[in-house]
Design goal:
It is a single chain. The protein is of the alpha/beta class. Helix content is 30%, strand content 26%. Strands 1, 2, 3, 4, 5, 6, 7, 8, 9 and 10 form a ten-stranded mixed sheet that branches. It has a two-stranded antiparallel sheet with strand order 11-12. The N and C termini lie far apart (38 Å).
């Protein structure tokens, strides 16, 4: 399994590298960096064009590395990791090095069975009793079998800013079950450090891409209005509600019917 951490504008603020113990874990870890920052990274890196946005980067990773090792774990660069350390206790505590290694090994084993999955977001983790859930949301820390994505000709670039949702729905629709860990959790630190997707995401783009996701997955997405507490000055914004379990096998059934008719 290869771990990929796309980053931009945060060379000196690397929370994921710190909390993942990147210098110690027994897994190949590749920083995915733009050309303009390549000289600032003294580690293994995959350099992408400066004009690439996140979906371009995700697709390039699949294209370039699916034959090297199809098991990929791709995560944001500003994450911290936590664990439910005590049985039947939903409180989460920061992961130790040993727990990080155990989490990664568990992901690697899952990828022998599941085409894709995720580490749960910290937000709402305590509302789920089970340690794992099938056919659920993947965000910020996504793992997948890149060979399946490549051979199914799926494309992150069809969505400019909801690419994880788009890929999860696409795989579910084709009948590929996912698994999401609630034993472990990941969350952003709330840092104000600029970088990442902030350079190109705007309220207008987010709204357009909500409707685009609905167009791509008409049976699995509903447009909703959400109150905005902090981002972009408050008010309301257009967002999506995704129906992960409802989406499962919808396109697989269509493909079966098509094949039977031909």
């Amino acid at each position: 399994m290869i771990i990929f951490i796309p980053t931009r504008g945060r060379v000196n603020v690397q929370r994921t590298r710190k909390h993942l113990f990147v210098d110690k874990i027994p897994y190949r870890t590749i920083m995915v960096v733009p050309e303009c920052e390549a000289d600032q990274w003294d580690c293994e890196k995959f350099v992408v064009p400066d004009n690439y946005i996140f979906p371009d980067i995700r697709q390039a990773i699949v294209r370039e590395f699916w034959e090297v090792d199809p098991y990929h774990m791709c995560m944001d660069d500003d994450l911290e990791f936590a664990i439910r350390r005590i049985k039947d206790d939903w409180h989460i505590l920061p992961c130790t090095f040993e727990e990080i290694v155990a989490m990664l090994r568990e992901v690697e084993v899952w990828l022998d069975t599941y085409a894709h999955g995720a580490i749960s977001p910290r937000e709402g983790n305590n509302r789920v009793e089970a340690l794992t859930v099938e056919n659920s949301r993947a965000m910020r820390c996504h793992f997948y079998d890149a060979e399946i994505i490549y051979k199914e000709e799926l494309d992150f670039r069809e969505s400019k800013c909801k690419e994880d949702f788009h890929m999860t729905l696409s795989l579910l629709e084709l009948g590929y079950t996912n698994i999401v860990s609630y034993k472990y959790a990941q969350g952003q630190s709330g840092s104000n450090s600029k970088g990442g997707c902030e350079r190109y995401r705007t309220p207008e783009m987010m709204e357009q891409e909500a409707y685009k996701l609905k167009e791509l997955h008409p049976n699995g997405v509903t447009i909703v209005h959400k109150k905005t507490k902090m981002s972009w000055g408050g008010g309301t914004r257009i967002d999506v509600m995704c129906y992960w379990k409802k989406s499962f096998c919808t396109r697989a059934n269509e493909r079966k019917l098509f094949n039977e008719s031909h």
